[in-house]
Design goal:
The protein has 210 residues and is an all-alpha fold. It is 64% helix and 0% strand. The longest helix is centred in the N-terminal third of the chain and has 18 residues, at 11-28. The model has no long low-confidence stretch (mean pLDDT 90).
């Protein structure tokens, strides 16, 4: 069961703010959605939402978030008289559903966007924006299930079988199989297990974590 970083009471406010932030970036200022979301992550503001910082999840408007992202990633200060008055656009929905799914899953914004892109999320708007949020959770969960685990990708790149990796790392074969099929979460593994696998595969620990 996922432990949420903040109470569901704040989720509506947080998701609206991120939706409005993305709306401003793309539709008001003409910034590419993929590029802006990368800036959102680079600025550390995404991390503030992930950790449930009340200053961000409940204290800032979408416009304030947009301005802070741009200032932190470009060093430029935008002077704007923009009044926040939004239609619920497909771009708004992407920010809204991303925030809901980040809260629900406990995954980082980066890991979500590494698995399903901004353009793919825009493409889901037509079928999901009027559906219950649980349906969006199920669809996004399915993207993670379909994607091969990083452990499996790196292992295959090293031309090792699961058995060989188990023998060389000292991590049991059943454990490796469970992490590769994602019935167990490698992100929550004991650090020494991840270290043994990374050492055997001659890679950085971060390359194995989803």
């Amino acid at each position: 069961m996922t432990t949420h970083a903040y109470s569901q009471l704040y989720l509506s406010k947080a998701s609206r703010a991120v939706g409005n932030m993305l709306h401003d970036a793309v539709l008001e200022f003409g910034i590419d959605g993929t590029d802006f979301l990368k800036r959102f992550i680079q600025s550390d503001i995404a991390e503030q939402f992930e950790s449930g910082n009340p200053k961000y999840i409940a204290g800032k408007s979408g416009l304030e978030l947009f301005l802070e992202v741009m200032e932190k990633t470009t060093g430029e200060t935008y002077n704007t008289e923009l009044i926040e008055s939004y239609e619920r656009s497909d771009v708004y929905w992407v920010g809204w559903v991303l925030t809901h799914y980040q809260w629900y899953s406990g995954r980082t914004f980066k890991s979500i966007l590494d698995t399903i892109s901004y353009d793919e999320l825009i493409g889901l708007y037509g079928t999901l924006h009027e559906a219950d949020i649980q349906k969006s959770y199920e669809v996004l969960d399915a993207h993670f299930v379909k994607r091969e685990s990083k452990l499996k990708i790196v292992r295959k790149h090293c031309s090792l079988t699961q058995e060989a990796l188990a023998n060389e790392s000292g991590v049991s074969l059943n454990t490796i199989r469970a992490y590769e099929r994602k019935s167990k979460d490698l992100n929550k593994a004991q650090f020494d297990i991840v270290m043994k696998l990374a050492k055997t595969l001659k890679c950085d620990v971060s390359e194995l974590l989803d």
